[in-house]
Amino acid sequence: MTTETPQAGHPSGRTGTSYDAIVVGGGHNGLTNAAYLAKSGLRVLVLEQRHLVGGAAITEELRPGFNFTTFSYALSLLRPEIVHELNLVEHGFMPLMMPGDFHPTGDGDYLLFGDDDDQNVEMIRRHSKHDADAYGRYNYDLDRVIQTVRPLFDSPPPDIFGTDPEDQADVAWMLKHLGSVDRKTIHDTVRMLTGSAADLLDDYFEYEPLKGYLASSASIGNRIGPMAGGSGLVLLYHKMGEHDGHLGSWSFHKGGNGGFTQVLARAAQSFGAEIELNAHVDHVLTRDGRAVGVVLADGTELTAPVVVSALDARRTFLELVDPRELPDDLVDNVRRTRYRGTSAKVNFALDGMPVFPGLEGAAPFGGFLNIGPTLEYLERAYDAAKYGWYSDKPFIDGALQSVIDPDMAPPGKHVLSCFVQHAPYQLKGGDWETEREPFADKAQAVLEEHFPGFGKLVLQREVVLPVDIEAKTGLSEGNIFAGEFLAPQMYFFRPAPGWSQYATPIEGYYQCGSGTHPGGCVIGSPGRFASQRILRDRRA
Amino acid sequence: MIRTTPFHARLTELNDQQLYTHWSGYLSALRFSHAPKHEYFAVRNAVGIFDSSPLFKYRITGPDAMDFLSGIVVRDLGALRPGRAAYTFWCDDRGFVMEDGVVFRHSDNELVMTAARPMLSWLESHRYGARVELEDVSDDYALLAVQGLRSRDALAGLVPEVTELPYFGLAESKLANVPVTVSRTGYTGDLGFELTVPSADALTVLDAVLEAGRPHGMRPFGEEALMTLRIEAGLPLTGVEWHDSRTAWTDHDRVTPKELGQGWMLKGVRDGSRRFIGSEAIRRELVDGTSRWATTGIVVDWAAWDRLHRDAGELPTKDEQALGWEQWLRDEDDEQVGYVTSFCYSPVLQRHIGLARVRPDLATPGTTLHMETTMHHSTHMVAVSTAALPLFNPARKTAKS
């Protein structure tokens, strides 16, 4: 599969120089936004700087027959509304269910979680009878928290600083919703949003590797360890993922997330949106305080009364427009937004299935491979990042995608797409040019330790550091969420207080990237909410 | 005593659940792994195998074989050349459906027919001097369905005939030196094949298929996954969509081919040019327009489904496991105008779907109806639209190659 060829019948390219709306950035949110605007009858142009759409959600055939999900590697938070409203199924939308999570416990044993709760409980009982029922309580309590935050997640944030009746009504709705939740769940919610994953897990469990397994998603994408306050929030986001309504279950889109963004592009094009590739936007054109179009790097001017930035806040407010046109407090807030990318990807083309000692030939794993046996392991992997260096023993969250989707690799071969943490954007006392391969060697050594003979299976290795993520996708400092998941950077503070409703101080200039609520991961809501805001403003 | 199929010894090794149901006196796996959804996806996205051996199989040979069977089954077998197969129903003399099966024409005078229930005495009782031999060969052959996106790729190295086989074509071949019949048939609505194998050599064939399928993500699937697949494919199931007319107590449980959505099989019935058991009753039904029901697909309004659950404080369920009961369909005036016979969430369509029977005037695709469902122990309605069957119909199912 190649994701570089646009679908026949929908050639990419631009037919004019004047549009109703121009979307800067062809990542999944830019495409989602464009699709909605086009569906509402607007003439829309998406400008993508690279030779393919998808942003951080792409699939690339780096070796004949081997497809790499270069950056994001799974799908779970995409909102079902988007699937339906944009008719994505007609365009090939196909989320496959991840088979399960395989978690070596570091002592030669393992935890294997799948779709059957009873079997998961039995897997835990093998190690700790105490944790068997705690697991059910933990899941239930977290699901309650998710039910509490989901309506907030699934609607644009209220403007708590707004004074008009509509804003006040939004705030009243939010308070009424929170007021309807029982006090235990509210308390659990606050503990999750502000506390550490470790504290939360310690309340339920005694078996360290189980805590390690559950905490693995508490640091993904953030420069944070599971013992630090705030890691609960990261954990919550990943726990909110679902496959067909099953919370905590993850999907893998056919053909990877590049397969998914191709589906989105086809949907957008079917509504009439145009997509121009290799089009680097230099800046947004403004006149008398309102956006009137964009200027490409080659000097081409394109006009539109609506310009939507799908880029992160730093680029949206400090690069695409002149920050001197913006209020100081907004610029200050954008400047101090934390990015600090620390997630690297190390992706492998493999000659066969990795083997776990004792499970030779059985290979019960085949979805996520999670290497971060205990909380302490995860925390120590983070420690190095605090001091500007990469982990000696990194934590790895890998997905053996070819087991789920045989089209990802030639028959009998496999691709393993790994998040590896921590690899800080900036090294202290060294540079990534020198450290790139040594870092990847550390990651591979960890895999070798748990799957002896792993190295002999490696046909090709792709190392994607935060600096590469930034260079290729434009995500500042390579932060995969377009701004870290920290309480002061969420909800009505995302991307900045007073500017969380997808508009900007420049009339006609909007934001629809993951830097806005509800944030990073392949959710699509920023693109959708922004389109609702744009259409509402047009009607006003 | 419960029996096991010729494939059982190997398939049971691959089954880490050991959950079985009974099918015609045989153990039949409900699922092989912790989530039947993976087995479902194996078919839609890779390749799955299903043990259909419990089907009854009858060999019909002799110079009158074609004429004999043409007078029994609903389908027009006139165009069934050697090397082709046909899906059909058969009816009682009142034109009510008894059972369904597939007729394989191996040669001019040799047919094999599968059936969900025993039917030898019924065939014999309608022989009327025809020069045919009727033989129950059910125990002689095992039946392995190899279904899904990669089924052709997985089998191509073992049975090269699959690369050329047209939809509902069949060929005699050898697989691992075992004589097999390979047919492009199945019950999943996908690209797929079935292997009819001498029972004694079943494991040899199965092992070769498993080996060839491994690099293609092959996995066995059970009845639970099959149910989701066949609902998406719009394929009716005996005992669910209809009841064998011979054993139904009242006409409420009986259904005619037309009512079952199989009107396409009835060529030559209205003008009386084709005769088979029940054809006269069906002719009258067609001429007088007395069909009580029409069969249709239904697709649930996703927003209504989500709203119903969220307003009730529940997470919207999206369960691909088929419901085990019927649900009523009502019109705008709250009058019952039909019922849903099979219902599940379709992962590939991302919608709740069903097979339903509605008053014939309401079967036009796109008609809005309301389906009863329960929430918090009381009745609620969700909007559904009628839709043409099959609801999932990939081009690869019938494509040449």
TrEMBL record, chain A:
Gene3D superfamilies linked: FAD/NAD(P)-binding domain (3.50.50.60)
Signal peptide (UniProt feature, chain positions): none
Domain of life: Bacteria
Residue ranges of every copy of the Amine oxidase domain listed in the record: 30-517
InterPro entries (alphabetical): Amino_oxidase, FAD/NAD-bd_sf
One family name in Pfam for this protein: Amino_oxidase
Recorded GO MF terms: oxidoreductase activity
Function: Probable oxidoreductase that may play a role as regulator of mitochondrial function.
Subunit structure: Interacts with COX5B; this interaction may contribute to localize PYROXD2 to the inner face of the inner mitochondrial membrane.
This protein's name: Pyridine nucleotide-disulfide oxidoreductase domain-containing protein 2
Organism in which the protein naturally occurs: Nocardioides islandensis
Upper classification of the organism: Bacteria, Bacillati, Actinomycetota, Actinomycetes, Propionibacteriales
UniProtKB/TrEMBL annotation, chain B:
Domain Aminomethyltransferase C-terminal, first and last residues per copy: 323-374
GCVT N-terminal domain span: 27-247
Entry keywords, A to Z: Transferase
Keyword Transferase applies: yes
Keyword Transferase (UniProt): yes
PANTHER family hit by this protein: AMINOMETHYLTRANSFERASE, AMINOMETHYLTRANSFERASE, MITOCHONDRIAL
Protein name: Aminomethyl transferase family protein
UniProt organism field: Nocardioides islandensis
